[in-house]
Amino acid sequence: MATVPFVIGLLVAWPVWNAKEPILGNVAATAVIFAAAFLLILRENTEIDRLARQCYDAGYVCRADPSTFVRFAVYASIGLAEEIAIFMISLRVERRLRNRGVAPEWHT
């Protein structure tokens, strides 16, 4: 979660940003990163459910440690941090494209 969705999101957004469509590039990267976060959360939920069923079938009561909320919050937090990074990179790319062909003393 910490590297692959971010890199794929950048690879998807970069050509769109260079086509002077920064908002669409951001949306594309957001879709990739949040889809990965949701898929990993669902995978974690499935695994926790499978382990809990095995405990119940064996006659025990098991709880996840750390709790499922904490596990899901980790994936969501990583996804949000990646989104913030994508938007910050987008601002730099947009500024670079805007200043292309402009004398350096006039750059914003």
Provide structural commentary.
This protein is mostly helical and 108 residues long. It has one domain. 77% of the residues lie in helices and 0% in strands. α2 runs antiparallel to α3. The longest helix is centred in the middle third of the chain and has 36 residues. The chain is rod-shaped and about 75 Å long. It starts with a helix and ends in a 9-residue tail after the last helix.
Q: What share of the residues does DSSP label as strand, in percent?
A: under 5%
How would you state the average pLDDT, rounded?
91
Query: How would a crystallographer describe the biggest sheet?
Result: none
Distance between the termini: 35 Å
Structural class by secondary-structure content: mainly alpha
Alpha carbon gyration radius:
20 Å
> Could you name the ranges where pLDDT drops below 50 across 5 or more consecutive residues?
none
Order of helices and strands: HHH
Helical fraction? over 70%
Beta strands, count: 0
Total separate domains: 1
Gross morphology is rod-shaped
**How many DSSP H or I helices?**
3
Could you write a compact summary of the structure shown?
The protein has 108 residues and is an all-alpha fold. 77% of the residues lie in helices and 0% in strands. It has helices at 4-18, 22-57, 68-99.
What attributes does this structure have?
108 residues
Task: Explain the layout of strands and helices.
Elements: H1 4-18, H2 22-57, H3 68-99
